[in-house]
């Protein structure tokens, strides 16, 4: 069904249907070496250089399971509120593909490492819970690079550097009912995986990949519709666009009297459409059987609790603590817990200050504005968390005014120096001497008779203008509290 046909659907027609969506998320684990051998997992090496007999699938080469893979997968399971099983088994998933040299993938089938979990996500202001069916470990295939046509022939190159890199596959329950749900779920999944540092989730490097299973049914219908699988969605934006198109495509098929076919589809970003890749009318027989070269994975209660104890505070818990302990608004807590690095920067800055809310404003305002403009993240901040906290403390203790702080901050960015050092070097000390400020106040009152008359006539808000004039005349160095006190006293 074309985009044009789907576009003819009215909002009323679309509203008759309910989408049913489940996601399969593949996360590359942040281990130094591959899952069954000692080859490095680093990205960007020359093709077919990070390989050995094991990940090349050569006869006689035997796999050895990487302990770090099990620990990271268990961490992911715990973070997703799953039951981490004491006994799980690796299995061979048999299929042919040019970049799968063994002729099978080592994965898990009926006995996964973790299962029966959930994530709680806020979607458009509403808290929702989406079930996690299972988390299992597996090795990745290589990469096929299609180089188009050359001399009237099509060439495909195979790079096996990625073959054998460790993955976890996180399979959701079919609990999502919109593309917004799926977007929020994947966002939360990425945030959690990055927080516990089991993956960088760098989508450009293929560290986070997503397949979506989509069907539609009339609202209130007890049974799910026929699903289509949309493969290899490698960006959050493409996930949302692909789901929106696929939902409308399926509705258009049903409304025109057709039948949705169970198939695998791909999303074409150029056309904005999903296109058929292959039929899935019959379930593919992967001929799973237990991997004979690897013993079952056993995780003792002691090991599980040791893994749990080593994990950092999860983002949902940290967000709640930021609102309760630091008095932050929910929006601010959301922003500051978007990444583990940002939340840790904020807390370090708070330690050096006395005002958590003011620190939040500086981090989300001046600092993040600067970093975003330069395409940097918080780990690349030219201003240390300690120095930013010290700057806020100087304001709240009336050592400097906010205006002076705005002058000091760019110098901190430029030099990396502490705010106190810059204040002394640049002569940016706050004027607190009442006599010196009183002289400026008298000049401002004399120079603004209209505003003085308005104030004395009852329009007291005009004092803000007069304060601004005093601050301007003092080049931002007059103590604001003293200025306000003197103006109110002299204006009567």
Could you write a compact summary of the structure shown?
The chain has 492 residues and is α+β, with helices and mostly antiparallel strands. It has helices at 3-7, 11-15, 67-79, 179-195, 236-255, 301-309, 315-325, 330-336, 340-351, 356-373, 385-396, 402-415, 419-426, 434-447, 449-456, 463-473, 480-491; strands spanning 17-28, 83-84, 87-88, 90-94, 104-108, 114-123, 126-139, 143-150, 153-159, 166-172, 208-218, 228-233, 263-268, 273-279, 289-290, 297-298.
Mean pLDDT: 91
Number of helices: 17
Beta-strand segment tally: 16
Strand order of the largest sheet: 2-6-7-10-1-11-12-13-14
Helix coverage percent of residues? 25-40%
How many whole angstroms does the radius of gyration measure? 30 Å
What would the principal axes of the Cα set say about the shape?
Answer: elongated
**Low-confidence parts:** none
Strand content: 15-25%
Count of all domains = 3
End-to-end gap: 77 Å
């Amino acid at each position: 069904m074309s985009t044009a046909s789907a576009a003819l659907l009215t909002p009323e027609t679309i509203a008759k249907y309910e989408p049913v969506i489940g996601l399969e998320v593949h996360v590359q684990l942040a281990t130094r070496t591959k899952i069954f051998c000692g080859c490095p997992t680093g990205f960007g090496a020359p093709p077919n250089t990070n390989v050995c007999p094991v990940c090349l699938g050569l006869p006689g080469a035997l796999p050895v399971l990487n302990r770090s893979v099990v620990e990271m997968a268990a961490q992911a399971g715990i973070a997703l509120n799953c039951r981490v099983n004491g006994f799980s088994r690796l299995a061979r998933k048999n299929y042919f593909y040019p970049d799968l040299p063994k002729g099978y993938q080592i994965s898990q089938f009926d006995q996964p490492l973790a299962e029966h979990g959930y994530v709680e996500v806020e979607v458009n202001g509403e808290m929702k819970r989406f079930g996690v069916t299972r988390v299992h470990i597996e090795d990745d295939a290589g990469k096929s690079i299609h180089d188009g046509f050359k001399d009237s022939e099509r060439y495909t190159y195979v790079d096996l550097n990625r073959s054998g890199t460790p993955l976890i596959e996180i399979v959701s329950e079919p609990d999502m009912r919109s593309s917004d749900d799926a977007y929020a779920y994947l966002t939360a999944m990425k945030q959690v995986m990055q927080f516990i540092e089991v993956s960088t989730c760098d989508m450009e490097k293929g560290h986070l990949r997503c397949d979506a299973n989509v069907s539609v049914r009339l609202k209130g219908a007890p049974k799910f519709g026929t699903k289509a699988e949309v493969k290899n969605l490698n960006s959050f934006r493409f996930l949302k666009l692909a789901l929106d198109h696929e939902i409308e495509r399926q509705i258009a098929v049903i409304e025109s009297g057709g039948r949705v076919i169970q198939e695998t589809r791909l999303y074409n970003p150029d056309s904005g459409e999903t296109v058929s890749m292959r039929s899935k009318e019959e379930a593919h027989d992967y001929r799973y059987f237990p991997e004979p070269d690897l013993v079952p994975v056993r995780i003792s209660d002691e090991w599980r609790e040791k893994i749990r104890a080593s994990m950092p505070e999860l983002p949902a818990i940290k967000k709640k603590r930021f609102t309760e302990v630091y008095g932050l608004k929910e929006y601010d807590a959301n922003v500051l817990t978007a990444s583990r690095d940002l939340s840790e920067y904020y807390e370090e800055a708070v330690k050096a200050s006395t005002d958590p809310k003011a620190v939040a404003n500086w981090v989300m305002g001046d600092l993040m504005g600067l970093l975003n403009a330069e395409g940097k993240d918080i780990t690349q901040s030219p201003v240390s968390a300690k120095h930013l906290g010290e700057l806020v403390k100087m304001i709240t203790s009336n050592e400097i005014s906010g205006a002076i702080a705005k002058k000091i901050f760019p110098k901190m960015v430029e030099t990396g120096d502490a705010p106190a050092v810059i204040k002394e070097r640049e002569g940016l000390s706050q004027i607190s001497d009442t006599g010196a400020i009183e002289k400026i106040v008298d000049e401002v009152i004399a120079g603004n008779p209209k505003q003085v008359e308005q104030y004395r006539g009852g329009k007291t808000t005009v004092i803000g203008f007069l304060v601004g004039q005093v601050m301007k005349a003092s080049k931002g160095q007059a103590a604001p509290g003293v200025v306000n006190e003197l103006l109110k006293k002299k204006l009567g």
